[in-house]
Amino acid sequence: MTTPMTRLGALYRAAIAQGDPCAHFATLITVDEEGQPASRIVTLRRLDENGIALLVNADSPKIRHWQANGKWELSGFWPALMVQYRVRGAAELAQTEAVRQDWQSKPRASRLADLYHQRVRPQSSALPSRQTLLCELAELEAAWQDDVAAPPAVSRLLLKPDMLEISQASPSDRLHDRSRHQLRDGVWTETLLVP
């Protein structure tokens, strides 16, 4: 039986196959300590029937928000397919050797940013100037060792949806195919929604 997560995974792979520049990106929304939504673009490391995996900085504001109240939503759009999706549910944070190996496969610039957060300035902290950032990054890169280990805060956030909404756009008549799926007691139920 095809589950909604299997369907979403197939759409994800189709977006990648079609060269969709948004295929690997989505917006993670959390709720901050003042009850305000906070969103940022994240990179999808894996999306399949087991969930959605992200590599994150365990010390980042998004993780602090999620740990404080457990609330998150992931929203994405694949223009090549004209598909929008939203997911909510549980999440698990893990720091394993597999996560550290996955970190090694990230682009060098992304790994440099992670090292910067760990060694120089925390993610989302205030900067005196853009020039300060560029100078500090240049110094860090000059000291870069090819075999540098992943910073301790590098973690995998596994999103395990229990709500999934998929909307397949129909631009010609605006009668989009929109459905919400809920997981309860191990069983997915589908509700068709008015577009």
From TrEMBL:
One of its GO terms (biological process) is pyridoxine biosynthetic process. Keywords: Flavoprotein, FMN, Oxidoreductase. Its cofactor is FMN. GO terms for molecular function: FMN binding; pyridoxamine phosphate oxidase activity. The keyword DNA-binding does not apply. InterPro entries: Pyridox_Oxase, Pyridox_Oxase_N, Split_barrel_FMN-bd. Residues 23-140 form the Pyridoxamine 5'-phosphate oxidase N-terminal domain. This is Pyridoxamine 5'-phosphate oxidase N-terminal domain-containing protein. It comes from Chromobacterium paludis.
